[in-house]
Structures are given as structure tokens and as C-alpha cells.
Amino acid sequence: MKICTQNELTYTPTSAECSVAAPFNSFFRTKFLPGFGLLQDGGVRANNPLAIALKESNKIWPSAKKNDLLLSIGTGVSTSGCYSVPDASNVFCDGSIPRLIRATLSSPCMDGEQGFVEALNYLPSDTKSDIFRLNQVIDGPLPRLDDVEKISSMLDLSYSVPDHLIRTILASAFFFFELDDEPVKRHDDFLCQGSILCSRGDTNIILKQIFLEMPNAHFQTARGQNLGGIHGNDGCSLCGYYRKTVRFSVTNVDEMTSIEIANTRFSHKIGGFPKSAQELLTEQQSYAHFGRADHKVAQWPPSRVCYCSRATKRRIQFLEPSLDQKRRKV
Ligand SMILES: [Zn+2]
């Protein structure tokens, strides 16, 4: 048996041929790989990869107890997909083969929309508010995969993204919180000090969108402690690095809390919440004073420098004498 080399497997056209072939050779032909056999479109096995995505995210972020946002995107759903029930039994419609075909086509393996609905049954109810599905409703039967003439008429279809989803993405996909120090025990609570940070460098664009979607938005805790307004001047105006220092209290370090972006009408959690102060300390590896076991660069206590400062450091390293010069000096 010949096994393909890594190069053969990662060769893009080969990978594409392996992944797009429909089962009946009507669109693209299947691809035979020595050592693997005949390969075809994985959509036949898992048309909606929601379960696969959840499993993979668990591998990538093992400490995350839940996902901030899960967005499933469909390729179109027909309004006329329902089977109309006839008045009398008809062998051509109700025989075993037609029933098998209908069952297959409407099963989660072949119908992505059905796959999404059924996958939701296996998820905890408290996670469903962070799961969204976008799909284009199409009147009449769905066009064939290779019906390119339909593309021009489909361009005119309106495609809308719910405002709720936009606000959720703005809050949970771009902003997160880190402690800057260990919580301080006070008389009857703990004071947490930390930074709300943005995962992107183009903060101004994100802030503008937040002001548009949620006028007068501010940060607050789940208990309603106001953490201050959202301003463009939090951070560095030169490079777009965003950092808003905040303080809030929790009754104990195991209390589950959240930081939200909110105004009088809406509130949306930023990334990573709900979480306790103890979980934040553990995730930031505050106990690893001599270096983290996973060798990540994050330090405790965290050093907060904007992208300008990081670029300066890089330039200084570049201007150092080359290794040859150093050896000569020795
Ligand atoms: Zn900067």
C-alpha cells in the first residue's frame, strides 16, 4: 500500500478535488488517493459542521468553558422544501425508494439547516443565546450547484444580518478583559483591577460601529457597576492599541461575573465572560512567576505596552551588531 507524502496531501488542487466531489459524480468527480481510497465532499457526512467546530474549539481553547459566539452560515434554504401530504397513498410517492430518498435528502447529513436545528438539541440551554444561524431564504426550489445562470438573479436577493448578531460580535469578538493585579481583599468584598483590551489594532473602526449600533454605550459589570464610557482616547491614538483600565468589586474570588457593553436598551457580554476572578488568575497563570508552562509570552503581572512600543523594541534589536561582529569583539 502506498501512502501519500505530506506534500501530496497539502497540494491545494488535490485537497480541493478531494473535498468537493458530490456522491453521484454529477458535479465533480471523486478523487482517488493511494492509501486513502476514493474521497468525496465531506458535506455528505456532515453537511452542517457545528459539532465538528465545537469539538475543534474545545481542542484549541481547552480552558474555555463555553464559546463566546458560534455563527453557522448556510448556503440557502428553500421555502418549498416541505413534502406535501397527498390524499391517497401513491406507490410512486410513498414506495420504499422515494421514502428513502426523501429521508436522506432531509437528514442532517444532507440538509444543513436540519443539521443545525438537530445539533442545538445536544447543546446546553445556556449556550444557545450565543449561537446564530444565517441563511438566505429562497422562494421555490434551490438552484443546482452548477446553475451559474441563477447567480445574476440571486444578486438581487436582500441579505440581512440581525442587529442583535452585530452587537454580539462587536462586544464578544473584539473585547476581552485581563486582571492587572491580584484581587485585593477589603472589608466585605474583593477589589479587582484590570484592563479591557481590544483584540484588533483598528480600534477606531470598531468603536465607531459600537457608537452606531449602541449610542451612549458604556462598560458595566453584570451587577450594574458602571465601569465608564467607551472612548476613542482609551489607549494609543498613534497605533490604535486599546486599553481601558477598570476597577470593580466581587463578593469573593469565585463569584461568577461579567463585563458588558451596555446602554439603556441593550447589554452584551465582552469575550470570555461569565468568569470568576479566580478563573481569570488561573488562565493568566498568575502563579507562574518564573515563566509559563505553555511558554506563551503573556507575563504576570502583565506588561501593557502599545504597538508603537513593541515596534520600537523590534527596531532596537535590529540595530544591534550582527553575530559576526560580536564574535570578533570576543
Ligand atoms: Zn501606540
Automatic annotation (TrEMBL):
Spans traversing the lipid bilayer: none
Q: Which GO terms describe its molecular function?
A: calcium-independent phospholipase A2 activity; transferase activity
The record's InterPro entries line, in alphabetical order, gives: Acyl_Trfase/lysoPLipase
What keywords are annotated for this sequence in UniProt? Hydrolase, Lipid degradation, Lipid metabolism, Transferase
Keyword Hydrolase part of the UniProt annotation? yes
Query: Among the entry's GO cellular component annotations, what is one?
Result: membrane
**Biological process GO annotation list?**
arachidonate metabolic process; lipid catabolic process
Annotated protein name in UniProt: Acyl transferase/acyl hydrolase/lysophospholipase
The organism is Penicillium canariense
Q: What is the lineage of its organism?
A: Eukaryota, Fungi, Dikarya, Ascomycota, Pezizomycotina
